[in-house]
């Protein structure tokens, strides 16, 4: 069986096993889920180690350059005189997707370990968890737009129930808000997907296709099709290709999330249980950034070039706005949630620069933030599970009560604010380098956008250091008094085993960024070349 197919559907197999086991074996469900994620992580590491690099393996717009490919006819419908309608099960990876697959696999292991705190309806929780795991892997592997859309939508239902059934006090509100926001973008994405299908033909058979790689080649568009580059078709007075880009961008920007489409995120994070918060921040947000690169920029490169300034501006607004909001929060989960909005702004700024440095930095930031946000939300969950409180002002002097916990918090905070030697420093440095280079190389972004983006790093230092000072230093002062002092025990063995690998990863990537750059470089150059061909 193809390695990617195995990677995608392993969670479904283990989910089926859990569904068949009696509820009396509920204590085994968490171990079965952990085994599923560990097997998946092992497969991802094997794929990473066997991934070939070089110009001949760039992928992006060249189907023959993708690796671990499986392409099988899936839906084949005879339309009579109108030809045939075919959809393929088409999966494969390039440098960008292989790194996000590896990151997601490790994050799912951490989320599975964090799920051991769940006490109610374990069978339902872990089945939904594994369905979500399958959908996430499918999104990063899909090269057929229809298949991509199915996996993309499949994520929505498990997340809705995981938040709505196992979340906090306002879980129903948060789940419905998340569902409606995401569905809004997805419905209009479906319309653009159908328009692309009717516009693009398979060069070998002449039939319409959902193949995303074919959609990146202008030669595959019919001269009179709605999204043809030469036809200049308009809808509502807007060029069809521009409108298609905007619709797809909004759908993915909701996931990133880009300001002002971010308001679902704080509510979802605050109400979601710890493992779901980890998945939301570490993986779901990256699917938004991945979709912008894989679909928006690669299928509509000329629109991305013309709108680069606005993409960069939205990125900078997200960086500054997210950081300022993080400074104003008292709920520790909201501090981390708004910091995610700010950190993901660097992804958009790097993409907007359309330089190799900027796109490499954007990809590195997605990988780095995936690990760091996992660590941060897990650490928040540690305190919340002990005293069921997250208010920053209700804690002081935790450093003397929980020294091991404080050590990992300091690693996570300093790594997240971009301290040299950690992964976030490399990611932000390359994103900003690309943005600074853009005015002289392609003239797409003004210098002031780069300067404003750099100010976001200073603001991130402010909210992380303020939180560290307020909660962990000074004499012990807790709202819950002696009861909290007893409850706030230091990290146990499971929590240390969870946090040590994450700490090592963000440190190793900060010292050896080539572990990521060597894999993504060829694909990044292919995206840049695709963008330059439209000028």
TrEMBL record:
Keywords: Membrane, Transmembrane, Transmembrane helix. The chain crosses the membrane at residues 6-24, 31-51, 89-114, 121-140, 146-166, 178-200, 243-265, 277-301, 307-328, 335-354, 366-384, 405-427, 447-466, 496-517. Pfam families: Proton_antipo_M (PF00361). Residues 142-442 form the NADH:quinone oxidoreductase/Mrp antiporter transmembrane domain. InterPro entries: NADH_Q_OxRdtase_chainM/4, NADH_UbQ_OxRdtase, ND/Mrp_TM. It is a multi-pass membrane protein. It is found in: Endomembrane system; Membrane. Its main location: membrane. Belongs to the complex I subunit 4 family. This is NuoM family protein. The lineage of its organism: Bacteria, Pseudomonadati, Bacteroidota, Sphingobacteriia, Sphingobacteriales.
């Amino acid at each position: 069986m193809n390695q990617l197919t195995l990677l995608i559907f392993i969670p479904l197999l283990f989910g089926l096993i859990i569904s068949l086991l009696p509820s009396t074996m509920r204590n085994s469900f968490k171990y079965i889920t952990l085994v599923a994620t560990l097997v998946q992580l092992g497969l991802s590491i094997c794929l990473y180690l066997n991934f070939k690099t070089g110009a001949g393996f760039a992928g992006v717009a060249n189907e023959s350059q993708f690796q671990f490919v499986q392409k099988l006819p899936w839906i084949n419908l005879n339309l009579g005189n109108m030809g045939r309608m075919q959809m393929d099960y088409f999966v494969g990876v390039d440098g960008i997707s292989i790194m996000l697959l590896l990151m997601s696999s490790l994050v799912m292991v951490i989320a599975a370990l964090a799920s051991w705190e769940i006490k109610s309806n374990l069978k339902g929780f872990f089945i939904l968890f594994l369905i979500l795991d399958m959908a996430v892997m499918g999104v990063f592997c899909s090269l057929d737009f229809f298949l991509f859309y199915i996996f993309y939508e499949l994520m929505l239902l498990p997340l809705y129930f995981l938040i709505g059934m196992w979340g906090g006090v306002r879980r129903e509100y948060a789940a419905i808000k998340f569902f409606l926001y995401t569905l809004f973008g997805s419905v209009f994405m479906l319309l653009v997907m159908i328009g692309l299908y009717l516009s693009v033909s398979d060069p070998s058979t002449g039939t319409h296709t959902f193949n995303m790689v074919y959609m990146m080649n202008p030669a595959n568009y019919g001269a009179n099709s709605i999204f043809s580059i030469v036809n200049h078709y308009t809808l509502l007075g807007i060029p069809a290709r521009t409108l298609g880009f905007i619709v797809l961008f909004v759908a993915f920007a909701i996931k990133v999330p880009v300001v002002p489409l971010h308001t679902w995120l704080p509510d979802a994070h605050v109400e979601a249980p710890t493992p779901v918060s980890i998945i939301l921040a570490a993986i779901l947000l990256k699917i938004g950034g991945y979709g912008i690169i894989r679909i928006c920029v690669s299928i509509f490169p000329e629109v991305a070039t013309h709108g680069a300034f606005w993409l960069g501006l939205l990125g900078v607004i997200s960086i500054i706005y997210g950081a300022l909001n993080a400074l104003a929060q008292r709920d520790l989960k909201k501090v981390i949630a708004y910091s995610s909005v700010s950190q993901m702004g660097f992804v958009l700024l790097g993409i907007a620069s359309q330089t190799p440095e900027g796109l490499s930095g954007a990809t590195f930031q997605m990988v780095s933030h995936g690990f760091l946000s996992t660590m941060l939300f897990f650490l928040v969950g540690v305190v919340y599970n002990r005293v069921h409180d997250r208010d920053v002002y209700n804690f002081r002097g935790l450093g003397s009560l929980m020294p091991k916990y404080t050590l990992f918090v300091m690693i996570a905070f300093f790594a997240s604010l971009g301290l040299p030697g950690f992964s976030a420093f490399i990611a932000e440095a390359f994103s900003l380098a690309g943005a600074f280079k853009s005015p002289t190389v392609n003239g797409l972004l003004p210098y002031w956008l780069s300067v404003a983006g750099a100010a976001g790093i200073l603001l991130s230092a402010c909210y992380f250091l303020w939180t560290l000072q307020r909660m962990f230093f000074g004499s012990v002062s807790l709202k819950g008094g002696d009861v909290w002092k007893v409850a706030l025990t230091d990290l146990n063995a499971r929590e240390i085993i969870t946090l040590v690998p994450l700490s090592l990863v963000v440190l190793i990537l900060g010292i050896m960024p080539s572990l990521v750059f060597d894999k993504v470089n060829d694909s990044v150059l292919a995206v840049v070349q695709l963008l330059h061909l439209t000028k």
